[in-house]
């Protein structure tokens, strides 16, 4: 693998060059490819909930079981969705992002140790 551009070894690591490297840019693209769609889906789900609560009160107040309503279940679903997205991101990061980030960090540490 190509070493990151370090410039003059007496000056240390050129972090701008590392940030502009294809490998780091690929890491950022991979992270964004998960985060942005997930954030968009969650926001859509949240706004659907808010709009239904505001404009479809008959629907949201339908009882499902005892005093449990559709609105209450959807509200609790917001919390569940948050935890599911968090767990999915942690899993994604552990499998896909962390190995690449670790390689980049280790290369930088080696370069820094040499300078």
TrEMBL record:
Keywords: Membrane, Transmembrane, Transmembrane helix
Pfam families: DUF485 (PF04341)
Transmembrane segments: 34-56, 68-90
Keyword Transmembrane helix (UniProt): yes
Protein name: DUF485 domain-containing protein
Organism whose genome encodes this protein: Microbacterium esteraromaticum
């Amino acid at each position: 693998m190509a070493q990151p551009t370090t410039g003059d070894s007496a000056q240390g690591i050129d972090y701008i060059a590392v940030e502009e490297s294809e490998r780091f840019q690929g890491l950022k693209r991979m992270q964004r490819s998960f985060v942005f769609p997930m954030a968009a889906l969650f926001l859509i789900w949240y706004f659907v909930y808010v709009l239904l609560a505001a404009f479809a009160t008959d629907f949201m107040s339908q009882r499902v079981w005892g005093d449990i309503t559709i609105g209450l279940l959807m509200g609790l679903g917001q919390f569940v969705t948050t935890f599911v997205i968090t767990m999915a991101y942690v899993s994604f990061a552990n499998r896909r992002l962390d190995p690449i980030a670790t390689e980049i960090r280790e290369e930088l540490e080696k370069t820094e140790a040499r300078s």
